[in-house]
Amino acid sequence: MIRTLIQLATGGMATQTQMFPDLPAYNRGLPMLTDSPCTSCGNCAQACPTDAINVGAGGIVALDRGRCIACGQCTAACESGTLKGDLGTRVAVLRREDLVLTNRPAQPAPPVPTQPAMFRRSLHVREVSTGDNASDLEVGAMGNPVFDCGRFGIHIVASPRHADALAVTGPLARAMQEPLRRCYEAMADPRIVVAVGASAISGVPFEDGYASANGVSPILPVDVFIPGSPPHPWYILHGLLLAMGHPAARG
After folding, report:
1. Per residue in 42-63, pLDDT tens?
2. Percent of the chain with pLDDT over 70
3. What's the structural domain count of the chain?
4. Residue ranges making up the domain that contains 79
5. What is the 3-state secondary structure (H, E, C) of 178-197?
6. CATH no. for residue 146?
7. Do the domain assignments include residue 103?
8. Helix (H, G, I), strand (E, B) or coil at 214
9. For the whole prediction, is pTM greater than 0.85?
């Protein structure tokens, strides 16, 4: 008993207290656009296995993080430094179009939507996996002592009848579409849907195949999009806190 108390007193705390810290330097992160002019070589678009990058006239680049599997091929192929790794962890968005980054000259930005704060104090999440085990593991890691999602009032529940949010991982092939609809219909209003990972957002790399695995949006209305393949636990926490309308998620 005394040894246990000594260990508790001297062992330190595992939980990360800083909100949304940058990823460690050895992590690749998602790609981002820099201020370096693009030479229009197109190497990044050719290297991308999921067609997440488009290079247009005048070096205008469009990078769709909703299709990005974070393989790092684009940043390795970019000779101009226009693309580089982003170690930031505030990557979730409320609109699908906000996942598309571009170096096009700035236009007047539309107002950023805010999520109603109806779930500010707690959020009960029913996770449904449709074929992305890596993202499932990251959702599980979100509850470990390092990230401790419970301190924010976020809890994973077993029944959709107890859930406020439906978190979907995987590309959602045809065989899982009806079960997912039933799960959603079993939830009480108000309810939200969270697409966790690139495959849940756009179906990559399985989209437009025989199984109709094109992500969640064609089946259910999605309220929060969390990129990554798989998304880091901080990415997922950012998305869920964004869904809650938590002020920490807005930076």
Report:
1. 999 999 999 999 999 989 999 9
2. 94
3. 2
4. 30-88
5. HHHHHHHHCCCCCCEEEEEC
6. 3.40.50.12280
7. no
8. coil
9. yes
